[in-house]
Each structure stands twice: as structure tokens, then as C-alpha cells.
Amino acid sequence: MTATAPAPALPADDPWLNAQRQFDNAAQILNLSPGLRAVLREVRRELLVRFPVKMDNGSLRVFEGYRVQHNTTRGPAKGGIRFHPQTNLEEVKALSMWMTWKCALMNIPYGGAKGGVVVDPKELSHRELERLSRRFASEISMLIGPDSDIPAPDVNTNAEVMAWMMDTISMEAGYSIPAVVTGKPLDIGGSEGRPSATGRGVTITAIEICKRLDRDPNATTVAVQGFGNVGSVSAELMAERGFRICAVSDVSGGVYNPMGLHVHGLLNHRSATGGVAGFPGSRPVTNSELLELPVDILVPAALENQITARNAGRIQASVIIEGANGPTTPDADLILEQRGVVVVPDILANAGGVTVSYFEWVQDLQSFFWEEGEINKQLERILRRAFAQMCQQADLHHVSLRLGAYLVAVKRVADATAVRGIYP
Ligand code: NAD
């Protein structure tokens, strides 16, 4: 091995093995039959594509991408598409399984899917990004459709990318199909409230966990890792509800002020400089330092595997609200549980996004659009119901909130599989 070769990923950091391990814990308590376990612990379909994109200088580059459907028993597959240089098939498989449980926990009629392209979009021009998005949409078009599989934004993708994908699928069909993706701009069938939905869900979750733990949001300090769609909206809405946001970070680095950061100022600073680093009135912290700060609530809202067996013992927050998917490994979960740290799992905490995506799809199919107040009200109702069901199972079985959430979700998918029967 050369000195520059990357360190091999430890099995403990493999998101797919971790997702299967989380499922196995629930399957054990639910006493699922071996056959049902075998069905649910694998993905149903995985599509790997390699496709060329014309660069602005006339050269061709070949990119690799994936679309994975974990399960479609309860309805069409649903899940975001990420553009990231380190994404890979195992990560996308894990993310697709987490989507199945998330949709089932929310009790919305979807299965789970996810997609990804191995690319650093910051290295592409705007036109190159558009060509890549369109070609990828075309490459996976054999799987996607409003009745079969509905993509949405995820890391490094946004409403504009969704518009290109919707347009590509529509042009190939010869007519507009707005319901083929969610997270679109309002002009083409997007939903009010969708851009802020995941952060709003994190905030609703934070208020619910404070009620459960008898904690006052106005006396609660928060650190947020990741200041993208999920992290920045979470910080903004949590600050509006009285939480004190003391630290945030993104790829540019982190900033900390124990007295609290002005979130609107941070948003302006990010717009002006491209990141949160250097925000006036704060001191710099690294991303790993941010996770270990003396705050009450930690909101990881960046990527997987941020809280592992290596740092779980040093986390000072007493509550972790998983804005990101898979930020805590199962080994870390065990350490946190022993230390009495409450983890509100991703499949609940960040489910606001897919819930409002569901509202968007329903509105597109009906060509009838709701006002934002109605959307936020329905989102809160669905999230609070799922929160209560998760707590009820956790309390009943004396297990973590993650396992409580999995017990609700896995049982719903298992019951649906049993009642449909096995084809043929
Ligand atoms: P995004 O691209 O908008 O933002 C990601 C943020 O994380 C950026 O601020 C980036 O700088 C930061 N980041 C990346 N690597 C980092 C690192 N090592 N340390 C600190 N910060 C880092 O993506 P997003 O849509 O906000 O997604 C974030 C997480 O939330 C992902 O796990 C995603 O799957 C999950 N999620 C997103 C949605 C959604 O609606 N967008 C819904 C549910 C879950």
C-alpha cells in the first residue's frame, strides 16, 4: 500500500452494514420469521450507471451513479439524490433502507429509495451541472415515475436540479409529469413549505423531546453540524422557538459562541463568503470539536458516521437530534445509551422533508395546491403522531428511541408484506 492510499473503511463505518444491524435489532424483538427478515434486510433493486457528460472545454467525462430501491411494498419508492465525491453503492443502499423505515414510521404510502452520483459539484460549471443532472435523470428513467419511484433533493442537490430532472423526464415522455420528483420550484408544481420542511421537522422534534424530558427550550443550548438545507433551517427555526444556537459548522469549518450566535447574521455571512467560517463575534472550532462542545442538544446535519465509538464517550450534549441520515453508528449508540444520552433517530427527526414531499406529490397528482399554513399544520400533526408512537414502543420494551421507531416502522412494512403475500 502506498503512503497516499486511503485507509480502508472499518466495518463499523460501513453504512450498509450499520443499517442492516439496526434492522436486525428490531427484527429480533418483533420475532420476524427468517423469510421475512431475509426479504427486508436486502434491497430490492440496485441500478448502477456510468454515463458521459460533455465538459465546457469540449472534453468528455464519465460519471458513476446509482438508484437503489430498498422496498416498494407500501407504495412507490421515495428518496433523494445526492451528488458527492465520496458516495458509493453501499452508502446509497443504506440510505434507501432508512427511507423505507422513515416513510413507514410517518405512515405515508411510500417505500424507500435513494440515488447518488460520484461527483464534486463544486468542480463543475453551472452548465456542466445541468448536463450531468439531465443525463443522470435519463439514465435512471427506467426506474423513476410518479407511480414507481420519486426522487427529491439531498446533499448538494436542490430545487433547480429537481427542475432539470422533471424537465428531462417530461421531454422524453412528451408531456409534463410534475409528480415525478419532489422538492421542485413552486413555478412547476413544487409545494409551499418544502425547502424548510426538514428543518421544521427537526424543530418540531426538538420541542417534543424537550416536553418529554421536561426541559425548557429557552434554557437549552444547541450545536448544529452542517449548515446546508437541513442544518441552516433547523438553526433558524430553533432560534425562533427560543433555543440558543451556540455553534454551527460546514465544510469551511465551525464557529462557536457560548452566549449564542445570531442565526440571521450567519445566513448573511454564508451568502457573502460561501461558508460560516470567520463569522464575527465567534471563535473557530473544528468539526470534530463542535461535536464535543458543552451544549444541551447536538444536531448533526451533515453526513453519516460523525458520532462513532471513537468520540461517543466525549459527547457532552445530553440529547442528539439526527438531522442527517445515519450520523451515529450502532457502536456509538451503545456507548451513548450507557451514558444516558438520548438520541432522537434520523428516521423521525429528519422525516419532515419526505412528509412535505408526500404533500407535494399529492398536490401534483390532484393539480390542487394548498397554502403553507395547511402544510405546516399537517406536517406537525404527522410528526407528533409518529413521535408519540415511537416513545410508546420505546417505553413498552425499555429500549432506545431508535429501536422504538424501528419497531413501529419495521412492523408496518412486515405486516404489509404479509398481507400482500409473495408473488406469484
Ligand atoms: P446540503 O448539501 O444542503 O448541506 C450539507 C451541509 O453539510 C453543508 O453545509 C456542508 O458544508 C456540510 N458538510 C459536509 N461535510 C461536512 C463535514 N464533514 N463536517 C461539517 N459539515 C459538513 O445537504 P442537506 O440536504 O442539508 O443534507 C444534510 C443531511 O440531511 C444528509 O444526511 C441528508 O441525507 C439529510 N437529509 C436531508 C433532507 C433534505 O430535505 N434535504 C431530508 C432528510 C435528510
UniProtKB/TrEMBL annotation:
Q: Which InterPro entries match?
A: Aminoacid_DH-like_N_sf, Glu/Leu/Phe/Val/Trp_DH, Glu/Leu/Phe/Val/Trp_DH_C, Glu/Leu/Phe/Val/Trp_DH_dimer, Glu/Leu/Phe/Val_DH_AS, Glu_DH, NAD(P)-bd_dom_sf, NAD_bind_Glu_DH
Residues that, per the record, bind substrate: 78, 102, 357
**Keywords of this entry:** NAD, Nucleotide-binding, Oxidoreductase
Q: What's an example GO BP annotation here?
A: L-glutamate catabolic process
**Site (Important for catalysis) location in chain:** 154
Q: Does the keyword NAD apply?
A: yes
List, alphabetically, the SUPFAM superfamilies matched.
Aminoacid dehydrogenase-like, N-terminal domain (SSF53223), NAD(P)-binding Rossmann-fold domains (SSF51735)
Q: Tell me where in this chain the Glutamate/phenylalanine/leucine/valine/L-tryptophan dehydrogenase C-terminal domain is found.
A: 191-421
Which residues participate in NAD(+) binding?
A: 198, 229
Q: Which superkingdom? A: Bacteria
* Catalytic residue positions: 114
- Please list which residues make up the signal peptide: none
> What Pfam families does the annotation carry?
ELFV_dehydrog (PF00208), ELFV_dehydrog_N (PF02812)
Query: What GO molecular functions are on record for this protein?
Result: glutamate dehydrogenase (NAD+) activity; nucleotide binding
Q: Which PANTHER family match?
A: GLUTAMATE DEHYDROGENASE, GLUTAMATE DEHYDROGENASE 1, MITOCHONDRIAL
Q: Which family does it belong to?
A: Belongs to the Glu/Leu/Phe/Val dehydrogenases family.
Q: What is this protein called?
A: Glutamate dehydrogenase
Q: Which organism is it from?
A: Candidatus Aeolococcus gillhamiae
Q: What is the lineage of its organism?
A: Bacteria, Bacillati, Candidatus Dormiibacterota, Candidatus Dormibacteria, Candidatus Aeolococcales
